[in-house]
Design a protein that fits this description.
The chain has 201 residues and is of the alpha/beta class. The chain has helices at 2-31, 49-58, 71-84, 101-106, 131-137, 155-166, 170-175, 179-184; strands at 64-68, 88-93, 110-113, 141-144. Strands 1-2-3-4 form a four-stranded parallel β-sheet. Helix 4 links the parallel strand 2 and strand 3. The radius of gyration is 23 Å and the shape is elongated. The protein starts with a helix and ends in a 17-residue tail after the last helix. The model has no long low-confidence stretch (mean pLDDT 93).
Length: 201
């Protein structure tokens, strides 16, 4: 992971240098119109689509949604985000998020979690029914999601499980399928709650 971000930073620097040289060339060209001396324009770096994506993250233009189950892996990714200066928007699935709810809250990272689904493979083995409620109680942005074609139609019932298992309020449970997903997408200024000025859909 670290090598990829180091490569992305270097790729970003190459394009910054190129754009600066191109600007200087354009300035020279316009101010020396009619001169006989000819100066070659700078050549751009070779494009790398993978690096362009990572540079988009470094610039804050691309939201990072990270598929992750285990707490240690989420903590490692947060460490890398601090080291390289980017923001993790959300961890998806996040079966062990309850172990690091305070870390998620401190770094403004959402967790999009199943209400009660785990132990289907080794990395998802250490889940608990209180996971979602504990993340919310720690002050982090908690979201209930589903990979199931039937579960997605009943997210209100999935959210209600946190009322039963974690003692969550009905209002907070509703936010997990309305306002918090809007926050995750950076659209909470337009939707996710019924408020004057919002789209209300």
């Amino acid at each position: 992971y670290r090598k990829a971000w180091i490569d992305a930073q270097e790729y970003q620097r190459k394009w910054v240098r190129f754009e600066k040289a191109l600007g200087e060339y354009e300035l020279w060209r316009t101010s020396n119109d009619g001169e006989t001396d000819y100066k070659e324009p700078p050549s751009p770096p070779k494009r790398n689509l993978q690096m362009e994506t990572l540079v988009g993250v470094l610039k804050g233009e691309i939201l990072v949604h990270n598929h992750c189950y285990r707490a240690d892996e989420m903590a490692q990714i947060i460490d890398l985000s601090r080291e390289f200066g980017y923001q993790v928007t959300a961890f998806h699935h996040a079966v062990e998020a309850y172990k690091i709810g305070d870390l998620l809250a401190a770094n403004n990272v959402c967790a999009a979690m199943w209400a009660d689904w785990w132990q289907f493979k080794l990395e998802s083995f250490d889940g608990i029914k209180e996971n979602v409620a504990m993340v919310q109680a720690a002050g982090a942005c908690a979201i209930v999601h589903s990979d199931s074609a039937t579960g997605i139609q009943r997210l209100n019932q999935e959210a209600a499980k946190s009322i039963k298992y974690g003692g969550m309020s009905e209002e907070d449970a509703l936010k997990m399928v309305t306002l918090n997903p809007a926050k995750l997408l950076h659209l909470d200024d337009r939707m996710g709650s019924i408020k004057e000025g919002k789209d209300a859909d």
